[in-house]
Amino acid sequence: MATEREPPPLGDAKQTDFMELEDGEDLFISTASTLESSPTSPEPASLPAEDICSYSNGPQPAEISLDDDREDLFAEATEEVSLDSPEREPILSDEQSPAITPVTPTALVTPRVEPKSISVPAMFERSKEELEEEANGDSFDMEIVVSDPEKVGDGMNAYMAYKVTTKTSLTIFNENEFSVKRRFSDFLGLHSKLATKYMHIGYIVPPAPEKSIVGMTKVKVGKEDLSSTEFVEKRRAALERYLERTVKHPTLLHDRDVMQFLESSELPRAVSTQALSGAGILRMVNKAAEAVNKMTIKMNESDAWFEEKQQQFENLDQQLRKLHTSVESLVYHRKELSVNTAAFAKSAAMLGNSEDHTALSRALSQLAEVEEKIDQLHQEQAYADFYLFAELLSDYVRLLTAVKGVFDQRMKTWQKWQDAQAMLQKKREAESKLQFANKPDKLQQAKDEIREEIEEWEGKVQQGERDFEQISKTIRKEVGRFETERVRDFKTVIIKYLESLVQTQQQLIKYWEAFLPEAKAIA
Amino acid sequence: FKKKPRAVNVDLQTDATLQVDISDALSERDKVKFTVHTKSTLPNFKQNEFSVVRQHEEFIWLHESFVENEEYAGYIIPPAPPRPDFDASREKLQKLGEGEGSVTKEEFTKMKQELEAEYLAIFKKTVAMHEVFLCRVAAHPVLRKDMNFHVFLEYNQDLSVRGKNKKEKLEDFFKNVVKSADGVLVAGVKDVDDFFEHEKTFLLEYHNRVKDASAKSDKMIRSHKNTADDVNRIASTLYTLGTQDSTDVGKFFLKISELFEKTRKIEARVAADKDLKLADLLKYYLRESQAAKDLLYRRGRSLVDYENANKALDKARAKNKDVLQAETSQQICCQKFEKISEYAKQELIDFKTRRVAAFRKNLVELAELELKHAKVNLLLSRQTL
Hints:
The structure holds two protein chains of two kinds. A three-stranded antiparallel beta sheet of chain A has the order 1-2-3. Chain A starts with 24 loop residues before the first helix and ends with a helix. In chain A, helix 1 (25-37) crosses helix 3 and helix 13 (358-435) packs antiparallel against helix 14. By secondary structure, chain A is mainly alpha-helical. Chain A has 14 helices and three strands. In chain A, strand 2 (159-168) and strand 3 (177-183) form a beta hairpin. Helices cover 69% and strands 5% of the residues of chain A. By secondary structure, chain B is mainly alpha-helical. A three-stranded antiparallel beta sheet of chain B has the order 1-2-3. Chain B starts with 17 loop residues before the first strand and ends with a helix. At the A-B interface, helix 12, helix 13 and helix 14 of A face helix 6, helix 7 and helix 8 of B.
């Protein structure tokens, strides 16, 4: 990772972001967003267990004491270069972005060389706001559809490929409409990348749909029955919702990984998402470690807002889980009802057959028909219950986990800050001790060393404080956005659900009204 | 529990000479006491209007006395009412009491209310069934004159009808086995009369199908009740969510919670109505068709006896021994057979008419109720939107 600190002499780095420096807003918006969003070098997906301290940028930016954005620029620049070059290379050639001219590193280097040019951060600042305006102001014009699940391959190596079609008028994309083929692990890979990049600075990254070994095995093995079709449909819908949520987030939308995911036809296989891979196990170990850590961190909450919100989310989580269970039970029972109604319909038809009074016989057959239609109705209602209601609830339960994770990150950041402060204190004490030591020849050297260390730790403390404030600010914003989203989501879904209920009742009325004269006609 | 008279499944002619109903019923621990109220202008009774208290066992006694009476062999004996069964309900109440700590106060009160409503419904049903039995007897031109029936109606002391003890129950069991075996034998005999032959095949098939339909409708209704229960739980969770949430969504949730509460009540009502109109109808006709089958069996039995007696007579005539005896017995069988046949024909025709009318009434009512509920449901949903 040390190599990341120097700008490697790459002449081939993909610099779509930095292209067309002369082009107006677009460039800067995308740049700003990508830069702003990763202030500290994110770890590549496969090595999550990185020493936290190495986050803080090296001594150079610390001295310059720029505001966050500038540091972002540097860190991001270096990071992007090293991360992307091996992967993005082949992709570059495929993309038909007409105006790309591979920009030489000089463009990269230029802003670096002039760290004091005020114009840069100013522009970034402005464009960051513009970016947000663009995301919130005009109608968010982007439609993503996940469709056409197709089984590729055979046996245990088979997988489902989904078509992801994007229709948009946003200018950050090269075309207005494009589609790619993706498989489930691609989605997981995307989420994994986004999570590592954004979670620890306070962004709520929408969680990806869950793995299901049982479900997938059935599909792989080739069972063509109802449950596997349902499973595929459930997954397809979940993937669609996942993408929609991700792009609704203004920062995530402009993330290069997201854009690449939507646009490029070939994506490197995200192997580290496999449950049993080395990375997977590493992830699980880390999760356990984090959980333990969480319990030991005791934070002095200076801001009541956070405490309130956390409590609120706890309650919400609890209730949503309960609701989700109840709704699932409802879906199950409604399906059962539909099955039983169908059985009854058949039975009533038989009864009608054996009845020798003609009018009654006819009426009974009619009854059987009515009941059959009703059973269909019940089934449809069950589907509505499920896809609208239950899935929304489970999405939100998972989202809340992400939200809680973000709060935890804040705690971790605070802890880092405090640790840095503690270290600083220790170093200061060491320094003052040295003052009173009596080994004159070594003293100067030791004093210098200590001085250096103290400065280093002072920087870290400041960084820690800034990080903490940054994450707090981000979280506030994110929570606000989450709440708005939540309100909107629930409202839409509930209205849709009510409409489905209304429709069911209307159909019921129609059927029974048709039956009534038949029943009356029994003489 | 006060109750108004209600003829659930049977169309009865209201006959002023003898009117019977169950005016009151009391539920005690594990028995139910019915107050049988009679209004009559018949001279046999001491008063014109009187009431007695009867228990389920006494109804069964009455029914048995009919069945065992040879005179009534030619009639469809109205099926006995089923035993009042509160076990399931009681179990649930107990479970609820045990699980009191695990649910919120509101949920508990709600569930308790539901269970009480269920208990009440079962109670009403059993009262209705007992009443129907009595009314059928009272409406039957011959059975209504039965001595036992009058005693049942009038004697205001306990009839001291004890439930069958184990020995008697065992006897009954064997009797039934013999009877069903015999029934198969008898059924195999082809009947001379087309009408009866047709009725036999018809009843057999019909009975089976009704049994099937009854079972399936029960299952269906149970599922329906389950969904109503689920909606109930959802409603209360939504309510909690709504009170917790301070945003707009909170108000939303509260409203939806209300809606679900109401729809749940309606759905429960739909299930209950279906139960009443459809399931009960089917169950009742299950029992009636069984009674009709029994009638046919008796007739079939008497036919076989008659034929046997004929054979015996021929044999006796051939041997010229005991001819008179054989003749008399043959005469008796013949009479019996003809009497039964005569009555049975009428009975079966009545049965059909009754059945058709009952089905018509119930299906119409079912449809109307379903419509009503659906409309209310629709209205509520629309309003909330």
